[in-house]
Known about the structure:
Blueprint: H1 3-19, H2 25-42, H3 50-59, E1 63-64, E2 69-70, E3 75-76, E4 82-84, E5 89-90, E6 95-97, E7 102-104, E8 109-110, E9 115-117, E10 120-121, E11 130-131, E12 135-137, E13 142-143, E14 148-149, E15 154-155, E16 160-161, E17 166-167, E18 175-178, E19 183-187
Parallel strand pairs: 1-4, 2-5, 3-6, 4-7, 5-8, 6-9, 7-12, 8-13, 9-14, 12-15, 13-16, 14-17, 16-18
Antiparallel strand pairs: 10-11, 18-19
Helix pairs in contact: 2-3
Amino acid sequence: MSPSEKTATDRLDIDANRKAIKYSKQEQLTRILWWLFWPLFRFTPRPFFWSWRVFLLRMFGASVGKNVRINPGADIFMPSNLTLGDHVTVGYAARLYSIGRITVGARATISQYAHICAGSHDISSPTFDLTRPPVTIGEDAWIAADAFVGPGRTIGRGAVVGARAVVLSDVEDYAIVSGNPAEPRGYRVLSDKP
């Protein structure tokens, strides 16, 4: 096959990939409805509307525990792929890119502008097919401001991901990581104070 024929074939594959439907009909409908309701979620004042935002997420299929606080401006891509445990806090303008499943354990905190990414593309595919690797954040973990947690990662129980860290591998329980890429800096030592 000549280079020009190969390019034409590749172009057809790319065109076919771009035209391919990546979501089920139910997912497409839910995404459209969420897009319509999203301003009612994002632009409600804090703190008077914690329960309103939780109600909307549940209405669109999210599993949300009790006493969850989601700040206005949080960007949640697909609520049906989201599980938030009891007492979870999601900060202002945090992005939960839930193409795949995102599970956040009880009492975990996701700070402002953090980005939890459960979607990517298959780099071995010539057409970069969509992938949906899940992200799990353990109980009592803290994802600090502006941090990025990549697709398919697990953040252990009680772990701390420092501000602006880029997590490209799993983080152990109670580990403290920071940097780009995030590297271990130590482990949390919990005090006996109540």
